[in-house]
Structure formats: structure tokens, C-alpha cells
Write a structure and sequence with these properties.
Length: 234
């Protein structure tokens, strides 16, 4: 079955070009010209991945991404942001909204297709039928659900993979480049700062006020899942 892609772009020529080239690459493509239309399309027929332009009229791509991440039924759909904004602050801002990848215009269709396949592979790698637990945190890979104690922790696909990878070897310190290779993959170039952004998002989702942070930062090295972590006593 072909992967279903939703391409959201307000420029008619680029939107048609995206649809034509992605279909040639073997994807099933639907399009939307603005954020409101995109949200309607997602509700009617959830895609496997969304290619989302940042600068959309009325509702920006970033706002669309936020709404997708805040809704239970859409928070796990991978999103690739397209934008002419190439600065580091813009990249971080895009990732902070919940995007899984970020591609700066102008770009080649071959690179976009490669990014799409890589993100879909990463999202699909979590479909195994098993669970992983440490203290009061449990990852259910079958349903792609994380719980801490009795509450569900809402995570995007990248944060899910990041937590799972760290939890598999509590106490082991991973450098940012190692995390990039293992969680993002070696086929896609992303900056090491990307790891910090996603760790921050993971922490925000995992930790409530007064709870111990299970993610340990090792200065000048990287991150680890804390092997001394224990559930917070209430």
C-alpha cells in the first residue's frame, strides 16, 4: 500500500509540482491550499505524513502543526515543515511546534522524497508488539502510548522514539551525534541542536510540577535515562 501524503502549500504552482513529483515517487498525494483546508482533509482522511508550508494565509503552518499535536487523533502524524526561513532560530522554532523534520526552500524533490521515506521509516519502527518499562514509566509500542504512573503522556513520534531509545539502556550516556544516528537515522542531515529541542519537548511532556526528571543531562557529553530514577512519592 502506498503511503498517503498531504501536501499543504498556498502557491498553486509549487503545490501542483509537489503532487506531481511525489506521485511519481510512489506516494498517494492529497493537497490543501491553506491551514483550514488542511485540518479538514486530515479529519476526513488522516494521512501517513504531512508536508506543511510554514507561510500559509490566515492560519500559519506552525499553528496547524500545534493544533495537530494538541489533538489526540492527530498528534502522532509525522510533519515535515517547508519554509524559506533558514536561520537556526527558525529551525528551532519549527521543531518546537512539533515538526519531525524541517526543509528549507529551495529544495530538490529527490531530497524531499528521501526525507519523507526516512521519517516514515522512523515512525513505522515503533510498530512492534512489546512494552518497555522502568519505574513508573511504560512504553506500549503496540499502541504507541507512554504512561507515567496512571496518566498518559502525549508524545509526538520523535519524542516517542527518543524516550524508547534512552530507556533501553538506563544509565548509558549518549552523545548528541549518537542520538541523531539512532533516532533520526544516518540518511537525513539534522543539526545536533535538534536533539536538545526534542529532549526539551520530551521533558515538558513527561514531567509535572514536583516530579523527578528521568532524563539526565551530562554536561559536554549528552543525555541518559537516569538509572537511579524512582517514582515520585505522594
Amino acid at each position: 500500500m502506498r503511503a498517503r501524503i498531504l501536501a499543504v502549500e498556498d502557491d498553486d504552482a509549487l503545490r501542483n509540482l509537489l503532487a506531481y513529483n511525489l506521485e511519481k515517487k510512489g506516494f498517494e498525494v492529497r493537497t490543501a491550499s491553506d491551514g483550514a483546508e488542511a485540518l479538514i482533509v486530515v479529519e476526513e482522511a488522516p494521512p501517513d505524513l504531512i508536508v506543511l508550508d510554514w507561510m500559509l494565509p490566515e492560519t500559519s503552518g506552525l499553528e496547524v502543526c500545534r493544533q495537530l499535536r494538541n489533538a489526540k487523533d492527530t498528534r502522532e502524524i509525522p510533519v515535515i515543515i517547508l519554509t524559506a526561513r533558514g536561520g537556526e532560530d527558525d529551525r528551532v522554532r519549527g521543531l518546537d511546534t512539533g515538526a519531525d523534520d524541517y526543509l528549507v526552500k529551495p529544495f530538490s524533490m529527490a531530497e524531499l522524497a528521501s526525507r519523507i521515506r526516512a521519517v516514515l521509516r522512523r515512525a513505522g519502527s515503533n510498530s512492534g508488539a512489546d512494552t518497555l518499562s522502568f519505574a513508573d514509566i511504560t512504553i506500549d509500542r503496540t499502541r504507541m502510548r507512554v504512561t507515567r504512573g496512571s496518566r498518559i503522556v502525549p508524545l509526538g513520534p520523535t519524542e516517542f522514539r527518543l524516550l524508547e531509545f534512552l530507556m533501553r539502556r538506563p544509565g548509558r550516556v549518549y552523545e548528541r551525534d549518537q542520538l541523531l544516528d539512532q533516532v533520526w537515522g544516518t540518511e537525513v542531515y539534522v543539526e545536533s541542536r535538534t536533539v536538545d529541542v526534542h529532549v526539551g519537548r520530551l521533558r515538558k511532556a513527561l514531567n509535572r510540577k514536583g516530579e523527578q526528571d528521568p532524563i539526565r543531562t551530562v554536561r559536554s557529553a549528552g543525555y541518559a535515562f537516569d538509572e537511579t530514577y524512582e517514582p515520585t512519592r505522594t
